[in-house]
Amino acid sequence: MTTTRAELAIHAAEEVETKEYGKRTDEEGRGFRPSRIPLHILLIIFSILMFIPFMWMVFSAFKPLDEIFMRPPKMLPNNWTVEGFRTAWEGAPFASAYVNSFLVASLVTILTLLTCAMAAYAFARIRFPGSNVLFGIFLATMMVPFQLTIIPLYIILGQLQWIDTLLALIVPAGLFNAFGVFLMRQYVRGIPLELEEAAAIDGAGRIRTFTTIILPLLKTPMTALGIFVFLGQWNDFFRPLIFLNSEEKFTIPLVVNYFKGAYASDWTSLMAATTMAALPMLIVFIIAQKQIVEGIALSGSKT
Amino acid sequence: MATTVEGRSTPDGTVASGSELVRTTPGMKRKRRQDSLWALAFLSPQLVGLLVFMLGPLIFAVILGFSSWDGFGSRTFVGFDNFIGVLQDQQLRQSWINTAWFTVLQLPGLMITGFLFAFLLQKAGQLKSVYRVFFFAPQVTSSIAVAAIWLWLLNPEISPLNTFLARIGLPTPDWLQDPATAIPAIAFVSVWQALGYMIVMYMAGIESVPKALYEAADIDGANEWQKMRKITIPLLSPTILFLSITSIIGSFQVFDYIFFFYETTAPSNARTIVYEIVNIAFREFRFGFASAIAIYLFIVLLIVTGLQLLAQKRWVYYTE
């Protein structure tokens, strides 16, 4: 094996990383302190207030339509029914929307991670003329509001025959992410040069170095950026609204909007549709909350 | 998390001097050319994206701003007509005011409540990650689902909120239809959704404040308020600056809620600038006029961000 030396170095680096991380777990405030009871009561009240709209959504979805005008309104249904879910499922293309949303979000995420890591490697490790200027241009584009480019983008995508296809959502988002390039570059710069030198002595070229040294060490920022991009794409409403027309191409937020337009006063079914839209991500979030919250905090704190 | 990050990538200066060490023997032109080609290869996907999906559209948008075009017929150059037209349009003037009003309500609400809850959560010990789930849940939900929930909660006929307000003797407005309450109600919904992000960002900032400072303050007999005022807030000021810049940019672009609440017929007092851009571009197909509005939006955002960066010298405190 020629890569052993480099691999050893990677392991060493990873070990340091986990050690550092272990140290950082909060020492202060471990255990229960009676003096904190008022604080906890306050936080519990506000947590419930924050969460009531979601509970209202879920329980209302199980109400029969005539219960919504009850005075005073009650959180729990008197007669539980899944009629709302049936209307929502049959009234709007939910099945295909789940597939579309998942396809778009995961493909954009994969494309973004790969292309941003590649660009970051070029900016951080390869000397070429105009490197700083080009990187500056990438940074400057972060100031451009998306609404300014959406009209020309719509025209360009029209020329490419991509309007009303998922490609319109996948390719532009996956091939350009200035923030992703910036975030990854910060991390590539933090990787010790010795690792690459060791790999070079072992005879690794640029591509080998990138795939066997750089990429494995970018796990932390890649997870963070991946979560950030996936969530953003899954929940995006603006671009699907403008780029898609036919129902079978709709993503989840678009389907909820469509359903509301078609079933204007069927409130309980709208809540069923909303529950179906919101629940998958809420469940994923509850399972992986630590990773998601930290990933998003990390994406933000590097800017 | 935040400190791990800090530990891994040193500030710009130090690493730059490190990359000077990359073997570049002068005279090795071939190596340099090879390097440039490799750089191009690694950059190419994002470079294509930059040109085709960002810089190209950006230039095109500026050209459109000076044109009259519906996307099909021929494009005619109209000089500054669009830009003057935007300034003279009565409804647009109202929409700018609405957008600014939304920002004025949403930004302080978000920044202050976010900080307060981050501060409280930080004291909650191990349970803080449990509370965090509740505060952060709206953040992972799509703005359309959020809007759908609040469409119910803000509808005067079926709203449990209004029933509650009536019971304690407060007025019960038709939140989204009453011109006086529409923008405040939308700002409230937006604060509810974005609060979790603020809390998480503030908490990351608070965690990175060295504990020794608080211990020293304790020895000096400082109270909680003094510690917050003299230690926490100054050390958090870079976080506060970053959050206020990104929040203002975000709040000037508010669209999803309004489109979902009102579809294409939002009342004059609930329309925002991005809502106008979408309507004018993709319903009326006045691409040139809509581009002119978007250019104004860009300029406004540049000015607001520039002012914040200028003002930072007065209040933002950097440790290094």
What does this 3D model show about the protein?
The complex is a heterodimer of chains A (303) and B (320). Chain A is mostly helical and 303 residues long. Chain A has 2 domains: 35-81, no CATH class; 94-301, MetI-like (MetI-like fold, Orthogonal Bundle). In chain A, 73% of the residues lie in helices and 0% in strands. Chain A has helices spanning 4-23, 37-61, 83-91, 94-125, 131-141, 146-159, 167-175, 178-190, 193-201, 206-217, 219-235, 238-243, 252-262, 267-287, 289-301. In chain A, helix 1 runs parallel beside helix 10 (206-217), helix 2 (37-61) crosses helix 14 and helix 11 packs across helix 15 (289-301). Chain A starts with a helix and ends with a helix. The model of chain A is unreliable at 1-29 (pLDDT under 50). In chain B, strand 1 and strand 2 (76-77) form a beta hairpin. Chain B has helices spanning 2-8, 12-19, 29-65, 81-88, 90-122, 128-140, 143-153, 160-167, 182-207, 211-219, 224-252, 256-262, 273-282, 287-315, and strands spanning 67-68, 76-77. Chain B has one domain (89-315): MetI-like fold (Orthogonal Bundle), CATH 1.10.3720. The longest helix of chain B is centred in the N-terminal third of the chain and has 37 residues, at 29-65. Residues 1-20 of chain B have low confidence and may be disordered. A two-stranded antiparallel ribbon of chain B has the order 1-2. In chain B, 73% of the residues lie in helices and 1% in strands. Chain B has 14 helices and 2 strands, in the order H-H-H-E-E-H-H-H-H-H-H-H-H-H-H-H. Chain B is mainly α and 320 residues long.
